[in-house]
Amino acid sequence: MKICILGLGYIGLPTAAMFATHGAQVLGVDISDHIINTLSNGQIHIYEPGLQEIVRQALMTGNLQVARYPSLADAFLIAVPTPFYEDKTADMRAVSSAAEAIVPYLKPGNLVVLESTSPPRTTLDLVKPILEKSGLIAGRDFHLAYSPERVLPGKILEELVHNARVIGGLTPECARMGRELYAQFVKGEIIETDATTAEMVKLMENTYRDVNIAIANEFSRLADRFGVDVWEAISLANRHPRVRILNPGPGVGGHCISVDPWFLVQAAPDLTQLIYASRSVNDGQPHFIVSLIKRSLGEVKGRRITALGLAFKPDVDDLRESPAVEVCHLLSKAGASVRAYEPYQPAMKFDGFETLPSLEEALKDSELILLLVGHSEFRSLDPKKVAQVTSARRVMDTVNAFPRARWSEAGFSMSSLGAHEREKLSDL
To answer: Which end of the chain has less Cβ packing within 10 Å, N or C?
Structure first.
């Protein structure tokens, strides 16, 4: 079977490698010369545990090839980004372009699957009309389906295989063909439904998580107001058998959770008040972090701040929609001198603040250490050794990753998101 996959990013490339290592002939397509050149040299352009090995294996066997343009195939998969514009409406240009690129190669009996996270009815109202420019009718002459990825960065290869897979077909036969395609490597349950339901499933999953993170972030603000340690309070509340509060943080990032809820807001603004409010809370969390820093330092203008971590979550290199980056930008706009260290993207550059290639360089001459991402490298830091390479004695932990007692014993003044030092009972 020959499969053409359009988009070789965080989802498209692992998916291409997975099909290729299970016997399919795969052509991976991307418009980026950098991506094509990197893969042609046997390297990968993203960090994901285990991915380098299986991509190299797939390339060496010849089962995976890469190119800038599609070719004839049995199945086409669209796995391109779907970001949003400044007004939070979906930018579907990449999906449209990918569908247009397939049209000259579409043949009777082909299967086309949209994997990109999309607003409801995208498969029916956007992709289907474009593909039918070929003169073929979807559901009659070729098969069309939607199947969202449901994987966690850092565990993509494992979850591609073992997670349940939803296949939403234009028709039941389209869904069945989609099942047969993914059954080549998926060991988890494969569930067939219609295309619009499958689109809703992906948006509902990420919106559910976003809403639950929003209440945790709002709890952190309330704890700050009332002088409560939010981490202790959450731990105690979660002892209730029907309560599972998530952890607060500097915000919500990544290409899914911070983006997908806006697709529902765009599609039905009159029905999404809760979703809109949750997005507003999470988008506002970086501003709250900056307010805590201003309170700690008194004034941020001219102060030297070291930011640890820029990725949207621990132990990944993905900086898309990262709240950590937003915090750094806000501090820079407020006049702070910000140095950042991101171990998974040490060479990344930003306007407005400086990035350093090593932890030691980032900590030099610092006044405040700001932990924004709980990377394993940061969690394992020895505060006594840190004290030897920096003059900073203030630490703000926004993700509850530093053992407060250890850092305090090493001479650091500790502050955390939603954590207050309570009055001693003897002082009351």
So the answer is: C
